[in-house]
Write a structure and sequence with these properties.
Largest sheet: 5 strands, antiparallel
Order of helices and strands: EEEEEEEEEEHEEEEEHEHHEEHH
CATH topology of the largest domain: Arc Repressor Mutant, subunit A
Helix content: 10-25%
Shape: elongated
Number of helices: 6
Strand order of the largest sheet: 3-2-1-4-5
Distance between the termini: 65 Å
Number of domains: 4
Strand content: 35-45%
Length: 315
């Protein structure tokens, strides 16, 4: 019976070979367990030991008494230990060594790829030549473990891990806590305040619970709350600017608003509208000014910063 990397076997201690370790046997084949892979007291010849089979740094099959965080075919959330630009990500698997998540498994866009400390849901597989690798766990694997979002979660802030991230949006495994494994959710691109990495920890608000129990999410506050926070942030931004003016208004492109303030153009208009109703700001052309600036100062500032406005329009 041949050994299979990524599985756990109970094997007999056949012999000790110093200075390397112990050879373990299943009756037909044997495998080396290095001294560094021992847990607890040293075994005796003839003892039965439970070990995990893996490939060592020289791609030789080896055994360890240490317990991995997952085995062949199993799903787990593993932390990114390191990132290699040509190979992919190396994940902590509980053995003092890492499991490779190949570059082919990562998003094409670099800004969506994991960084050290992020945690990704993966399944342990064999590559084409039999080595152990991680494969991203997608909807078909995760959907068997999730539970429907309770109605009481609607409009609540939750946390979770990004399981897949695309231009159209980011899929999130929402923490299940004591209830279970988790809830599957989606943050549409319009509801993201920034690009989200695969494996990133994210906080979002449940905006809608679908019939299938999945949740739509948003990283923004409810409009009435967000409007106040956005207005305060915009007002503070303007107060820090020379002359109290900024080259952004209702006429500014949505992409520029998103890049500058991290909010949608609709949210920007609501926030500025609030400030205008409170007579804290005014607009003149493509510029917005603090209301305590005189018209003459506004014109002077507009002329002085016309090049800045052109730069903003060209972003």
């Amino acid at each position: 019976m041949s050994f299979v990397a990524g599985t756990t076997e109970t094997l007999r201690v056949d012999r000790e070979v110093s200075p390397y370790g112990y050879f373990l046997s299943n009756g037909e084949s044997d495998v080396l367990m290095h001294y560094t892979e021992l847990v607890g007291s040293k075994p005796k010849i003839g003892d039965q030991v439970e070990v995990f089979l893996f490939f060592d740094s020289e791609d030789r099959l080896a055994a360890t008494m240490k317990k991995p965080l997952l085995q062949l075919g199993e799903l787990a959330r593993l932390q990114v230990a390191d990132v290699h630009p040509r190979l992919g990500c190396f994940l902590e698997m509980g053995l003092g060594r890492q499991l490779l998540l190949p570059l082919s498994e990562l998003p094409e866009s670099i800004e969506y790829r994991p960084l050290p400390g992020d945690e990704v849901f993966v399944v342990m597989k064999h590559d084409k030549i039999g080595r152990l690798v991680a494969k991203i766990a997608f909807e078909e694997e995760l959907s068997e473990l999730v539970f429907p979002a309770p109605d009481s979660w609607n409009n609540q802030w939750v946390e979770g891990w990004v399981t897949k991230t695309l231009q159209l949006g980011s899929f999130v495994m929402i923490d299940g806590g004591v209830v279970g494994f988790g809830v599957y959710g989606l943050i549409p691109s319009a509801e993201r305040i920034r690009p989200l990495r695969l494996g990133e920890r994210v906080s979002a608000r449940i905006t809608f619970i679908r019939e299938d129990g999945r949740a739509n999410l948003s990283m923004a506050q409810r409009k009435e709350v967000g409007r106040i926070e956005d207005a305060d942030r915009i007002l503070a931004f303007m107060k820090e600017r020379p002359g109290g003016g900024m080259p952004y208004s209702d006429q500014t492109d949505a992409d520029i608003i998103k890049q500058k303030f991290g909010i949608s153009k609709g949210a920007f208009k609501r926030a500025v509208g609030k400030l205008m109703r409170e007579r804290l700001v005014t607009q003149k052309g493509s510029w917005t000014y603090l209301a305590d600036q005189s018209p003459a100062v506004q014109v002077e500032n507009a002329d002085a910063h016309s090049s800045e406005a052109e730069g903003a329009d060209g972003q």
